[in-house]
Amino acid sequence: MIEKEFKLDHERLKRLGMVEAIWGQHKSYEQICEILRRFQATSQMALVTRVDNKKAEKILDTLESVQYHSQASCLTLGSPLDLDPSLGEVLVVSGGTSDVGVAAEAELSLRMHGIQTDCLMDIGVAGLHRLLGKLERFTKARVVIVCAGMEGSLPTVIAGLIPQPVIGLPVSVGYGVSGGGNASLLSMLSSCSPGLLVVNIDNGYGAAMAALRIIKSDLFKKY
Amino acid sequence: MIEKEFKLDHERLKRLGMVEAIWGQHKSYEQICEILRRFQATSQMALVTRVDNKKAEKILDTLESVQYHSQASCLTLGSPLDLDPSLGEVLVVSGGTSDVGVAAEAELSLRMHGIQTDCLMDIGVAGLHRLLGKLERFTKARVVIVCAGMEGSLPTVIAGLIPQPVIGLPVSVGYGVSGGGNASLLSMLSSCSPGLLVVNIDNGYGAAMAALRIIKSDLFKKY
Amino acid sequence: MIEKEFKLDHERLKRLGMVEAIWGQHKSYEQICEILRRFQATSQMALVTRVDNKKAEKILDTLESVQYHSQASCLTLGSPLDLDPSLGEVLVVSGGTSDVGVAAEAELSLRMHGIQTDCLMDIGVAGLHRLLGKLERFTKARVVIVCAGMEGSLPTVIAGLIPQPVIGLPVSVGYGVSGGGNASLLSMLSSCSPGLLVVNIDNGYGAAMAALRIIKSDLFKKY
Amino acid sequence: MIEKEFKLDHERLKRLGMVEAIWGQHKSYEQICEILRRFQATSQMALVTRVDNKKAEKILDTLESVQYHSQASCLTLGSPLDLDPSLGEVLVVSGGTSDVGVAAEAELSLRMHGIQTDCLMDIGVAGLHRLLGKLERFTKARVVIVCAGMEGSLPTVIAGLIPQPVIGLPVSVGYGVSGGGNASLLSMLSSCSPGLLVVNIDNGYGAAMAALRIIKSDLFKKY
Amino acid sequence: MIEKEFKLDHERLKRLGMVEAIWGQHKSYEQICEILRRFQATSQMALVTRVDNKKAEKILDTLESVQYHSQASCLTLGSPLDLDPSLGEVLVVSGGTSDVGVAAEAELSLRMHGIQTDCLMDIGVAGLHRLLGKLERFTKARVVIVCAGMEGSLPTVIAGLIPQPVIGLPVSVGYGVSGGGNASLLSMLSSCSPGLLVVNIDNGYGAAMAALRIIKSDLFKKY
Amino acid sequence: MIEKEFKLDHERLKRLGMVEAIWGQHKSYEQICEILRRFQATSQMALVTRVDNKKAEKILDTLESVQYHSQASCLTLGSPLDLDPSLGEVLVVSGGTSDVGVAAEAELSLRMHGIQTDCLMDIGVAGLHRLLGKLERFTKARVVIVCAGMEGSLPTVIAGLIPQPVIGLPVSVGYGVSGGGNASLLSMLSSCSPGLLVVNIDNGYGAAMAALRIIKSDLFKKY
Amino acid sequence: MIEKEFKLDHERLKRLGMVEAIWGQHKSYEQICEILRRFQATSQMALVTRVDNKKAEKILDTLESVQYHSQASCLTLGSPLDLDPSLGEVLVVSGGTSDVGVAAEAELSLRMHGIQTDCLMDIGVAGLHRLLGKLERFTKARVVIVCAGMEGSLPTVIAGLIPQPVIGLPVSVGYGVSGGGNASLLSMLSSCSPGLLVVNIDNGYGAAMAALRIIKSDLFKKY
Amino acid sequence: MIEKEFKLDHERLKRLGMVEAIWGQHKSYEQICEILRRFQATSQMALVTRVDNKKAEKILDTLESVQYHSQASCLTLGSPLDLDPSLGEVLVVSGGTSDVGVAAEAELSLRMHGIQTDCLMDIGVAGLHRLLGKLERFTKARVVIVCAGMEGSLPTVIAGLIPQPVIGLPVSVGYGVSGGGNASLLSMLSSCSPGLLVVNIDNGYGAAMAALRIIKSDLFKKY
């Protein structure tokens, strides 16, 4: 039998400055507890994504110092990393109510790495006035993460209005041809707004880590 | 051998009020001439779509009364139908320079059926100010046809701003995932703006015939 | 944590003349109740689509003035809008018994906006006599919405027979290559009948809003 | 180097009663001549499909007894097989002018095997009266082959009207989502008319061989 | 509300010689009972496909004269139609154990229409000797229906060996790229064996109705 | 006829700090000349992408001050923008010789906006030593753009090794399943390296504009 | 009714040297027991794949000599085959914790055929040092099976480093575009490392049988 | 401008025992000459794949010691590597005449690495007797490479008959759903014959390198 031991990439924090995220969806209650215990033993921070309410409750009953974030469906262990707040803030935007879960995963992942965040929900392009009335909130952000399901137009509209890095985060919300998030993903990749960046469907953690890379890229300036 | 004779649907005009359109792309110079001669013989109007410059020139050399519309890549025979101008006007909008050919096919098809038209080109969402500055042009239209390639967001933005029927017309402009017009089509079908209607990629004639059906639906009111 | 507050687009009624529809499928019982209470507080009409029997029952137990329409799987709040009946009637047609749910969503959405409706069920093209025997019912409609799963031929056949606007509404009924509604959608988009319009798979509400736009486009005539 | 010799399946005629068809599209002028010479040497019949005009002319210049059928884009060698005419006739139907090439390949393949054929072109469902006015032509056929591109509804409508075997033959005519024949193929496979049979896109020869199998299946009755 | 009444195509038996099949998968226990009662009232035969064990048991408890065929997951009402046995027999073949359900649906549909059937299960091409050792069973059949999931090679191999009509019936058995039956369907459509016919994935009833059309095509011979 | 006039988004430079890029692939020699003349008239910089050798030569013969960059298949007008070099440098990496064209489009677009660039070609993962031997070149870059066709693993490997922003740029190089760049795109979107960003296939200009947004995001820090 | 009897390919062991594997996923508890009893009756070895915990427990309660391997989700009957250990060992590698199930199916299938195995888990390319630090484990293997989900880069990196046969085994782990394993499969097929071999998604048994064929190919050397 | 220099992986021969293959399809005459000159200068062997007749002729005119293999569309430089013939022979099989080019690329690549080869062309499954009559040729091979387009059944049939490693090589021959080789690829991946290995469509070189890895894996036995 294959040894069950998980070889976590403990060097990731040193190498990339990122907390290792454990993808919880296909892991059992027992597997997640075992992983978290190992992190606890070495006093490391941990982030477990895609943990539903039921599984989370059982884990919280077993492990004391773990916290559950129900909107983001994530478990965390330990306190957020420190980061110089002057590096700037990341704005997380979403087009509709159904995108909130993915937006929350991104927002939590940012905060766990010490990044300042702001949020703007429900400003989809079907009612453009909701977006245009909030433009000054965008001027305060260094990076903008835009969650959108359905036809995914929101990141295109925003990237045409502002000069900052915009990360399109497609969401698997929809039905028919938009179900699964594919229409939204294709729309973002095809964007006529120059320089829109894209990550995988529902990948809130990935969008956050990309924003972290951008925020911390100051270290690689040529002083 | 199968008899080469084309059985055109001459009843279409009577039944649907539409001129029969001949799809010219895969027809030879000889086939198109033969079809047009038959229309001429019965003094009927005709519209041949997707005829490139070279084929058109040879046909114009052969048949006198035919006209070529190079922007729309269409041939026409006969003069436009009459229609009551008070039924209202159709506005044809396009997002980028590359959509002009499809927009022109739609616009010509409308005019051949006697419909008043207006056109707004190059108002893509990557520069939203171009669209927002033209909003009053939209209030004069009864139906709006919106051509868009790439990520196809324009019809969604417009259908969120105005109450009239909006017909999304995806255009096969792009590269990578947007090549062939599929991303644009999916985007329009997935639109979060309620009531956006869609036709096949590059189907300028179809969008025009849908607008014609709408314009003439007054006949089916319950006076 | 992201504030849970839903920013509904209350301007939609004023701007587009449409009641905001809430997509109920991925919302919890609690979320739907919260939204409906806010509508109640401001005496607004509301339409919640894709609510199954179980969820509906719990909501009806909690909120008094809400109504459930089981065939359409929709909840409504408030009474329908008023609309001039002389604007004409919309005919909702379906090919098979399994399309009834989607047809009912379209029909209810129309009635909530004050539009007169008629319905013809089970007239699929596999038994063409059922359709041909009902043709005079079509002459009384200003717009026809045609629901079809499987191979989706029905809208093509109807759009070849009548001059009114025809909206093809693909239904996710089928198995193998027709499962999910994709074959039906492609068939409608590819239609050889000129001017057939299409909306997303199962999008009964969208088809209805498109019909509403058409019916009310009289306001944009050039008197 | 791999020996260039072609190992033709000369047993096919004995085993299946079918003339071997050579797929000419990707073969050079030299390769086709070489193959035909070998057939000539053994006095066998041959059928080469998908040979364009230019290649055909060069081959006709080289090999005397070969015949070219330009509508079907096929070369034949030798005279048709004999078959008892009382076995019945095959009707080849097409929806539009652009399907004629594929229909002609099917019709020629049938005639080369001695089968009686009839043809009905240009009876697409967009003008249903053209089909309904010809129904008695269908009662004389034992098998019906129906060619259709675009949305491919024609075989579904026909298979709902007649009890004979109907073979749907999708044609790669169209643009946008119907380009390549895929929408038509999916439509036929999804058909709500029970017992519709389907072959690959543009496979006129295959549809003919299927009809041959049906016509000759009398040999396997239980007298 | 849309009237719930089902408009069954009672003319189908007269027109096509086929019993109407009701697709049971998405219908509730109540809907199926209601339909069957109407058939009972007019003493008609009925076939309901895709009914799982649980639903079937409840229906059998309610309606007396109904029979359940668990292997085929079908309900039937009434006794099979009469058919001249000399018209020949249909052989139903399957490649693997997992195809048995679809094979059984085909076989039952044939028997309900009075057709003689034979069955050969588990003769997949991975062990070719199993097929080659049974070849004489094929010589007794007039039509062969071949069920296959996975890579779907079996119909190709059989159609290369025998001259009768072969109907490929792809089965949604598999995983990875073969899950859902798509690889099997594509394989059958692409077959290098001339004249292989194909129906939709899992469409046992459709394959049977196609065989019925073939068997009864004798009526259209030219005596 | 639709007025041919191009409405360029002259505000883009002011709004986004980006030179407008004209997509040259589907534009004629005449159209490109007309556009460039208008830029010349207002002394603006311009970038035209996807212009092949032949078209470029004709344009250079007509317009004096235009420059052609054959490796990048781009035309430029005017001199590069000024940018503070201390903002840091962008490293453009490619996996194979065939990616050079796309890499060059990215590199030129960066230089036209005043950004310092470095290039590393031919360091594909099939020979990992080529990459590992060059790691210190990566430590000098603030942003890394990684071009890769075929299976597209290179950006994943690099993003696992360095903490800077990495932009995956899929290239349409390959054959079979990798033809068109789709396998590479999916691979980058699916990456197990956290925070890898992706743009459309062959979109060298887009990758460059994303890097520009990142480099200039310093303006949005919270000093 | 179709006879339920399973015709197992008992010759497979003699012909191919492989134990027949029964695919347990879609088989019921009763079916699996029946099959295993027949194997027991003839004292043959058996391997049943894809059996979940619940089904396995019921089977173990019924049949004594059966063993369950929970990590691999497989049942086995009988003891492993004998094989000369000098033929060499197979190394099974996986990129992430979630691939362990598929890796275990491969590993168990190898051991049941008497092959020596070694395992390396959790050495994904996102942390390349984990792989590079284990290279000498690879030099002891004759064949390497590499399991990978997500973007599937691991087999490409390994096949570029070692000269032995490498079998890429895509795993259906992921979400968005990587869900279902398709991105991983395409990546492996597109690999720029020469001679990488691929099997179907999640096909652990298949990868093992391919390794067995390679290990035993010594019998076909030309001594 | 990016330096044009190609960084060839000269270590590949030492590391993997493989000659570097240059993919010639998208390289110009000049680029190929430049690469070959560099190989010549260091007296290394080279293989350039996918070079058409015209390009080859120009190169042969320029470089003396280069050889063109027209059936395989490959150029080679230098003489084949030496390999112990007792390691065994590789049999290259193809289903149809149109697969010969891909088969020849595989066969040449094997010979350039010193491997003994045998070839069997035109033994497709549509005429199974051609394959069954040649079975003893298979017993002399250590590895079998099977090229197949269309429905790609041949590797499945062969892998069910013989115990050696079988490498399925899908060929982009076909039309409709089989065009591009996708049906063939899916068929091979889905194969019900255990242990069939697969490479990318048309990847003759890749299949050969996989066979080389297998043949040379003797070095990793445990003596």
From TrEMBL, chains A, B, C, D, E, F, G, H:
GO molecular function, one term: hydrolase activity
InterPro entries the record matches: P2CMN_synthase_LarB, PurE_dom
UniProt-listed SUPFAM superfamilies: N5-CAIR mutase (phosphoribosylaminoimidazole carboxylase, PurE) (SSF52255)
GO biological process, one term: 'de novo' IMP biosynthetic process
Matching Pfam families: AIRC
Superkingdom assignment: Bacteria
This protein's name: Circadian phase modifier CpmA homolog
Organism (species): Prochlorococcus marinus (strain SARG / CCMP1375 / SS120)
